[in-house]
Amino acid sequence: MTDPQNAPMPPVHGSPAPGTPEVVGILGAGRAGTAFARVLLKAGYGVDIANTRPPKALRHHLTIHAPGAQAVEPADVAARTRAHDGGAVILAVPQEELDEVDPAWVEGTVLVDATNTWQDEILPTWLEGAVIRGEPTSSAVAEHFAGARTVKALNHVSHSEFDDAAQLDLPVTQRRALGVAGDDAAARGRAMALLEAMGFDPVSLGPLAAGEVLQPEGPLFNRPLRREDLLPHAR
């Protein structure tokens, strides 16, 4: 019997159409953020991207690493994506810089937490506390960005292989599988639809806490997986 939460995804509501592409916001224009942007642009999405650089300074960086992405002020990263049912923003900044992200910037969106905790990284106090308590970091992210609907995804595939890992030309069942975890079922479904549109096979792991298996040193981190590898970890 097919697991309902991992049934084939229906067409994306508000998905890109000629002349009116859906827009995804990205916070972070490093190697991961620009890799996400390139794949989204190839899939037909518009991309608004922001980091600590002023948009004018960021534009040259994007012409090299994510041509077609639009540099915006951090406060405007969700401005265009909100037009599509509240929108989606990918959080791709180092966790040590999360206190520089104003929760108001992503309020009302589906916030895709693609961040990871690395050894010796200086973390915000609210996040360090969660790590010390042994809690999944996304639970703390969700609490900090309470105005958004947080989903854990995109963190367990290396940015260096992300472009090649996204394979739109293959049937969904033959693509690399990526896990998605979130307490809000609709937000989780939206993130899954986005991953499918980017060229992956999305697998729902269930609630946000289930995303712990996607973190560094977890059983699913940075491994080329298929759906059957992820399903045993679904709750």
UniProtKB/TrEMBL annotation:
Residues 24-116 form the Pyrroline-5-carboxylate reductase catalytic N-terminal domain. Keywords: Oxidoreductase. The keyword Oxidoreductase applies. Transmembrane segments: none annotated. Pfam families: F420_oxidored. This is NAD(P)-binding domain-containing protein. PANTHER family: DUDULIN-RELATED. It comes from Nesterenkonia halobia.
